[in-house]
Amino acid sequence: MAADPSGVLTGQHYLDGNHAACEGALAVGCRFAAGYPITPSTEVVERIASRFPLMGGIFIQMEDEIAASIAIQGAVWAGKKAMTVTSGPGLSLMMEHVGLAAMSECPCVFVDVQRGGPSTGLPTLPGQADMMQARWGSHGDYEIIALCPQSPQECFDLAIDAFNLAETWRVPVMLMLDECVGHMTERVVIPTPDKINVVERRWTTKKPGEYLPFEPGPDMVPDMVKAGDGYRMYVTGLTHNEKGYPVMNHIAQEKLIHRLVDKIRLNADKICRWEEDQTDGADIVVLSYGITSRVAQRAVEMARSKGLKVGTMRLIVAWPFPEKRVRELAPKIKAFVVPELNYGQMAFEVERAAAGQTKTVLVPHGGGEVHEPEVIAEAIFQAARSIN
Amino acid sequence: MTEQSTNPVNAYLRMDRMPSIWCPGCGIGTSVNCFANALTQAKVDLKKTAIVSGIGCTGRVSGYMALDSFHTTHGRALPFATGLKLANPELNVVVYSGEGDLIAIGGNHFIHAARRNLDVLCICVNNFTYGMTGGQVSPTSPGTARFTTAPYGQFEEPFNLPHLAESCGATYVARWTTFHVRELTKAMRDGLKKKGFRFIEVISPCPTLYQRRNKLGDGLDAMKYYREKSVKKNNADTRELRIDFQSEITVGTFVDRERPTFLEAMNKQFSAVFGDKYKPYPEGPSKNG
Questions:
Q1: Residues 141-170 of A with CB under 8 A from B
Q2: Domains parsed from chain B with CATH numbers
Q3: Interface pTM, i.e. ipTM
Q4: What residues of chain A, 69 to 128, have a C-beta less than 8 Å from chain B?
Q5: Which of A65, A145, B259, B284 could make a disulfide contact with A90, Cβ separation 3.0–4.6 Å?
């Protein structure tokens, strides 16, 4: 389905990543946003606040991130597409409601513009250390989807994908920028509304009485209704049956949680996305994401100029992790080199997926700035040397 | 065979979830009975009525009502309701939760929902304790009473909820006990028909935990206390409504006023700024008090 033209600023723009993410959300039909100011993410909601009045949208600055992260879920159950925007400390506060969205299968989008942490850390400077929190931060077992743009254009494109994935799989989707990508300004091309693919909500075709709100379809995802349509729905964060009613036993738990996990794990091939370059015949594959993938590109060029066979794998979707592809590549290469602005998060996932078939070399960085390309290049050289 | 009559309230309940989890003598069920009657009397469109709760004994109310029911996280019923109401103003949104949920963990949301004049009816069942978790001290627990987490007696100042609600901007503030079923029903009916942030405190017994630990008898003893010690005083100064241990309980309608709701204020501001370019956002069903 094409986009509602009221949200689409068709044309060529010179935008930073935060503003581009906002435009992507508006283009795909987000008409409710709740936020709380936090550096370095605030430009996203500032732009929403200025754009929404003439588009029929509602922006509300809530009293904290806890409130923002559940206000959007109220809006979703009223029928809107909704998102909130934050950075690390705010994401920490939102975690209980990531769990609620996973449990109640509420399609919504969380934009996280990552900064250095832990705690207040480096509010104005980049980090990539929320990757594991995005995946595991709420208690209990569940799955989410996380996307990692590396440019303002991709902030726009992936904001659209984030909403579409949320509606398709009924999970909270994280759009994981970092401070650099959020604040870098580049050309952003916004297509005409007919060129923008919009996934609508999976509205049920069943009538009240026939409809079971948590009865999954063949893809393990149930269809939705909204409040006010006469379905007298029941939504709870408690373990529930297909009717939505709480059931306090291990049988209901197994049935529900297994499905919530499997609907993403077993459909991972349809969700995972990455870019590969020169991995055929490579000795080393540099796996990276977000701003670090752009820095790594320079390091890869330096290594290639010395005759090393270096491929790249750039994560676009970080969660679910493309473990099948990493496992395929592992026996064919001598090492994965994984630079990231943290002390080892996705690198451990690479190591797990590689399952001992090759080495995984982490190039850590505490955040606050990006890697020097030479540091990544040196890691590539060392990995190559240690093999020979 | 005698004809079996059906309780008229059944139509408002998810009867397939009965019996409820509430203890004998608990007042939450009484308040729900009043609420169901108020829904009939106020003639609200049940199809367009949603109920939102947080966590706790009263948090289970949403799940027993045959409305669009949302049982959310602890303390967060009001911000959920904020999104629900603003995204579809046609809905009548009722928040129904306990004092621990609304005023302790959810206290920040409570003051801001009242300040914004969010157009919801907020019903707070105040039983002075955390029932679901076993009788801990709550933000309204009266001084010297004992709780599992205040075994030597509560010594903090309790919140005076009508005063808090009025100070923060509620358009309607009332307090009744579960002894006052007619008055409570009428307050809920009036509340359903008004606009803005409407707050009703329901003083309610917890025989299993609060009363037993404090040697206050059973549910019937609570009714006797409410009958003997309640004083009706409409328009009372809310600063004087503090409740101490087994003290007098002032009940009545304390505040009934008009203030622009969040959406009314938003439309006014944006219309002033944008003129004809601004298409006013729907404000919801018109109401006549």
A1: none
A2: 8-277 (3.40.50.970)
A3: 0.97
A4: 70-80, 82, 96-97, 100
A5: A65
